[in-house]
């Protein structure tokens, strides 16, 4: 939730400025967090909580949600 909120603040700032260019930090923020910080945190949680964390991870999306499969 914290990283989604921080990304939301950056998006709100871009909207308030009415600037498409101001969205670039959002993309960088999300990309860097998703490939560095979050991976380190998930590794630490997996080491500490094992199968319970893996079960949690299957149920809870990393960012906003999963797209439901149709069919």
Could you describe the 3D structure shown?
There is one protein chain. This protein has 71 residues and is mainly α. Helix content is 72%, strand content 0%. The chain has three helices and no strands. The chain has helices at 2-17, 24-49, 51-59. α2 (24-49) packs antiparallel against α3. The protein is elongated. The mean pLDDT is 89.
Give the helix/strand class: mainly alpha
In percent terms, what proportion of residues is strand? under 5%
Low-confidence stretches: none
Please report the number of helical segments. 3
Strands, total number: 0
Range of helix content: over 70%
- Most strands sheet: none
Write down the secondary-structure element order.
HHH
Radius of gyration using CA atoms only: 15 Å
Question: Please, what is the average pLDDT?
Answer: 89
Gross geometry: elongated
The end-to-end span amounts to 30 Å
């Amino acid at each position: 939730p914290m990283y989604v909120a921080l990304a939301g603040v950056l998006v709100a700032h871009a909207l308030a400025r009415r600037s498409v260019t101001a969205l670039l930090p959002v993309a960088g923020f999300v990309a860097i967090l998703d490939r560095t910080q979050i991976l380190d945190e998930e590794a630490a949680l997996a080491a500490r909580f094992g199968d319970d964390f893996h079960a949690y991870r299957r149920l809870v999306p990393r960012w906003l949600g999963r797209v439901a499969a149709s069919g």
